[in-house]
Fold this sequence. Notes:
α1 runs antiparallel to α8, α2 runs parallel beside α8 and α8 crosses α13. The protein has a domain of 234 residues: Aspartate Aminotransferase, domain 2 (3-Layer(aba) Sandwich), CATH 3.40.640.10. By secondary structure, it is of the alpha/beta class. Helices cover 36% and strands 13% of the residues. The protein has a seven-stranded mixed sheet, with helices on both faces. The protein has a four-stranded antiparallel sheet with strand order 10-12-14-13. A three-stranded antiparallel sheet has the order 7-6-11, with no helix packed on it. It contains 13 helices and 14 strands. It is globular and about 80 Å long. The mean pLDDT is 96.
Amino acid sequence: xxxxxxxxxxxxxxxxxxxxxxxxxxxxxxxxxxxxxxxxxxxxxxxxxxxxxxxxxxxxxxxxxxxxxxxxxxxxxxxxxxxxxxxxxxxxxxxxxxxxxxxxxxxxxxxxxxxxxxxxxxxxxxxxxxxxxxxxxxxxxxxxxxxxxxxxxxxxxxxxxxxxxxxxxxxxxxxxxxxxxxxxxxxxxxxxxxxxxxxxxxxxxxxxxxxxxxxxxxxxxxxxxxxxxxxxxxxxxxxxxxxxxxxxxxxxxxxxxxxxxxxxxxxxxxxxxxxxxxxxxxxxxxxxxxxxxxxxxxxxxxxxxxxxxxxxxxxxxxxxxxxxxxxxxxxxxxxxxxxxxxxxxxxxxxxxxxxxxxxxxxxxxxxxxxxxxxxxxxxxxxxxxxxxxxxxxxxxxxxxxxxxxxxxxxxxxxxxxxxx
Length: 420
C-alpha cells in the first residue's frame, strides 16, 4: 500500500531545507575570495585600470573558454547590452530571441533601439526552437540573441546554420550556462559574442557582474570602448576624444577579485552540480510517470542552473497542479515554469511597447514595424511554462539531497498511481 502523503496528514519526506544560491548553503565562497579582496583593499587600488584583478579574471576566463577576448562588465544585463551595442545596428532593426528569459535580454535589445522578435521554444527544455527562429526572419532581422536556459545549451549547430544562411549576427546569452557545452564546444563560443552573468544565483558569482567573450577583434574593440564611455585608453587618439556614445559598465577591482577566485573554482563547482543532478536523473528514470530532464543528444555538458522534469498525467492519474501541491507538502522545492510562469511577451513594457517617454520607439514607424505580441503564437513556450517542474540547483547539493528529492517524488508518484 502506498505511503500516506504529507498533504493528507502523512509524514513529510524532507524535514530540512535544501541548499540555496541565496546564501552560503549553496555557494562555494570562502578564504580564496577573502584573500583576493583583502589584497585589493590593502593596495588601495579599487579602479580596474589601476589594479590587476579584473584583467587577470578576463585572462583566465578567456583561457577557460578557449577564446581570444573576455571583457568584464558590471552585470549580465550589461554584458548583453554591450554585446548588442558592439554590433552597431540601426534603430528599428530586429533581433530574434526567446520569450522565456530574464528582462536583461530584452533590455539589451530595446536599449540599443532595436526590436525584439520572439521565436517559439522546445516545450521540454524552454530553449529556442531553430525552426521557429527561421520562420521569424524578415528583411529587418539583423541578429539572433540565443538564450541557453537552465544550464542546457540550445541546438547551436542548427541555429548557426540558419544564421550563416541569412547572414545574421549571433549573440549567446549564457547567463545560466557557465561551463555548458554542445557537441564538445563551450557555449559562448559559437556565435559572434557570448555573454555571461555573475549575479548571485549563477554557477559562479560576485553578487553581480558579468562578462562577454569573442574571437572577433573588431567586436572586442567596440565592446571595450562602449563599456568605458568610449574613452580611448589604447593610445589611438590624443586625450579623451570620444567617437561614439558609450556607457559606464566598468567592473571594479573588488568585484574582479571575487570573480577571479570564483572562476578558479568553476570546474569543481560544475563537477559537484553534475554529480548530484545526474544521480537525481537516474532516480527519476526509474519512476513510472516521471519524465527526467530532457537533454538534446549533442548536449555534452549540462551545467545545471535549474533541475527540471515533467510528469505524465495519464500514467500517474493526477493533474500537474495537484502533483505540484503534493510534492510541495513533502518539502520538495519545485515550482512550474520560470520567471513568473508565462512568456515574457505578456509583460507590460514589452506588450505595450513602453521604453522611451510616451512614444512607442523603437517599435513605432518610421523606425520599425509595429509587431503585436500574442502569447498564443508560442505554444511550446506556453506548454513548457505550464508543465515543467523546476528547482534551483547548486554546488551545495549532494547525493544525499538527490536521494531525498527522489524519495519524495517517488512517494507522490506511487501514491497517485495506486489511486487510479
